[in-house]
Design goal:
Layout (H helix, E strand, L loop, with lengths): L2 E10 L2 H12 L2 E6 L2 E5 L9 E6 L10 E5 L4 H14 L2 E2 L10 E4 L5 E4 L12 E8 L2 H12 L3 E4 L3 E5 L7 E6 L10 E7 L5 H11 L2 E2 L10 E5 L5 E5 L9
Parallel strand pairs: 1-4, 5-8, 9-12, 13-16
Antiparallel strand pairs: 1-13, 2-3, 3-4, 5-9, 6-7, 7-8, 10-11, 11-12, 14-15, 15-16
Length: 249
């Protein structure tokens, strides 16, 4: 295993504004603040490895995102506190056909859907983000691909969902939920992978392609921070170049 899951990337019209929303909501800090990218991550000593990155969008949001975040709560009262805080920061309640459920469905200031979950035993030690959730026609197939890509083992498989988690037992789950909708257009949220320093990117691209990925052109004709690829259901992701490959800013 030579790559790791590095971050969830949001394409946004106002990267700094949306990053500030998520930093305030999660209690995380801004770790990168540039005109072309704003990153937020959990503060030490939480030690959760996954970051959120916010980049300038190249196209408008159309329809429901195929990737969203589920937020954890410690109690029913804490769930309500989380919802109230999100609303005070600029979120809004939305109806995506969820019906009467125990979680609350919201959208951030740029209409990216997310859920505030009721307390669940499997998320007691995840930190603020319980799970990164991906809509899919085939949860098992996509979980197997992303297990190969991220190095996270498949921890549970059910009739409509499969889940991965880091072998360290720290941080969010990566979950794949069966949905009948077919992907259309480019995702506004995607995942970034990073390779370990000793690995050649070309070798990692070849390994990911053997697992089922396909290469893509970078949006806007270039400038991507690595190799753009798509998983077996055409969800875009980026294999980041090693830090030494980036030009100084």
């Amino acid at each position: 295993m030579s790559t790791r899951l590095a971050c969830v990337v949001f394409d946004t019209d106002r990267p700094r504004s949306v990053a500030n929303f998520w930093a305030e909501l999660l209690g995380w800090g801004v770790t990168v603040d540039r005109p072309d990218e704003v990153d937020v991550a959990a503060p030490d000593p939480d030690g959760h490895e996954l970051a959120l990155a916010f980049l300038p969008a190249t196209r408008a949001k159309a329809g429901k995102n195929r990737i969203h975040l589920d937020l954890a709560s410690r109690s029913i009262d804490h769930q309500q506190v989380q919802v109230d805080r999100a609303l005070s920061l600029g979120a809004r309640r939305i109806d995506i056909g969820q019906g009467a459920v125990s979680w609350v469905v919201l959208a951030d200031p740029e209409d990216n859907e997310f859920c505030v979950l009721e307390p669940r035993e499997e998320y007691v030690d995840t930190g603020a983000v319980a799970a990164i959730v991906v809509d899919t026609r085939d949860p098992v197939r996509l979980a197997e691909f992303w297990s190969a890509a991220s190095g996270w083992p498949v921890e549970h498989v059910g009739a409509r969902m499969a889940g991965l988690r880091s072998a360290t037992g720290v941080g969010s789950w990566l979950e794949f939920v069966r949905t009948p909708e077919v992907k259309a257009g480019r995702n506004r949220l995607h995942l970034d992978l990073a390779s370990f320093p000793a690995e050649r990117q070309a070798d990692e691209v070849a390994r990911l392609r053997a697992a089922g990925a396909v290469p893509l052109d970078a949006p806007g004709g270039g400038g991507a921070p690595g190799q753009m690829l798509a998983d077996p259901e055409t969800n875009e992701f980026c294999l980041l170049r090693p830090a030494a490959d980036f030009s100084a800013v």
